[in-house]
Design brief:
The structure is a single chain. This protein is of the alpha/beta class. It has a single domain, classed as Rossmann fold (3-Layer(aba) Sandwich), CATH 3.40.50. It has ten helices and eight strands. Helix 8 links the parallel strand 7 and strand 8. It is globular and about 45 Å long. 48% of the residues are buried.
């Protein structure tokens, strides 16, 4: 992987294909390999940029607290380093929160936005409290309990659960802790939707047990011009459960 220095971290990334710049942001607690299975369907259309968010994969992190704006600033710094002024930005789950922060901070740099198994709402108080408890548990006991709790929620497909579990087990505790706190403190992005002047793609499985498909339908209702693709029987990782449908949907951002 290539690496760039930005905001005090070394941000690792891969770059494949040619065409419209497309940044694919992975969810929590994974890394850029989440997208590996669909890149072959995209690289004839897009210049695909696959970063590891700070702390995850091969990217480093910082000791101080950070938030979604910091993740978004990292991506802006990466695009600067690559000489890319404008890109389509797609985020899965937590990566969607980063994509929304990027769209708020750098609207003129967004050519299109994609939310995959994500949402625009902030955490309700009980969810926020749960994230802080999980962060404390990881700090004291390691990542094991979070991995075991999350793996079955990604998908009902046991083989893909194993893939997700293997990826989660590779990540560093500091990445979990930083991300959990950042997610807990993220802003509600509902009001942001009305400002979008670029194409928006929503991809969601109707069997997602982590973020219900109703969250995507609510965005579609607030933003009628958005392209919503509902994937039957898919859970939280449609890029693995329904590769071709997910890739075809993303091509609306070309």
């Amino acid at each position: 992987m290539e690496k760039v220095n930005v905001n005090g971290v070394q941000l690792a990334y891969e770059r494949r294909g040619q065409g419209t710049p497309l940044v694919l942001l992975h969810g929590f607690p994974l890394d850029h390999h989440l997208w590996d299975e669909i890149v072959p369907f995209l690289e004839d259309t897009f210049d695909v940029i696959l970063p590891d968010l700070r702390g995850f994969g091969e990217s480093t992190t910082v000791d101080s607290a950070y938030d979604m704006d910091d993740y978004a600033s990292d991506i802006a710094g990466l695009l600067d380093a690559l000489g890319i002024r404008q890109a389509a930005v797609v985020g899965h789950s937590m990566g969607g929160y980063v994509a929304l922060a990027f769209a708020r901070l750098y609207p003129d740099r967004v050519r299109g936005l994609g939310l995959v198994s994500s949402q625009v709402l902030a955490d309700p108080p009980e969810r926020k409290e749960g994230r802080y408890k999980s962060a404390a548990d990881v700090a004291e006991n390691g990542i094991g309990s979070v991995v075991e709790a999350m793996a079955p929620k990604f998908t009902s497909n046991e083989e893909l659960q194993s893939v997700a579990r293997a990826s989660m087990e590779k990540q560093q505790p500091a990445a979990y802790i930083g991300a959990l706190k950042a997610m807990a403190e993220r802003a509600d992005s509902t009001a942001l939707l009305s400002s979008f002047q670029f194409p928006v793609v929503l991809i969601h499985g109707d069997a997602d047990s982590l973020i219900p498909i109703d969250r995507a339908r609510e965005v579609k209702a607030a933003l009628p011009q958005a392209h919503l693709v509902e994937i039957s029987s898919a859970g939280h990782i449609p890029m693995l459960e329904s590769k071709e449908k997910t890739a075809e949907a993303l091509k609306h951002l070309a």
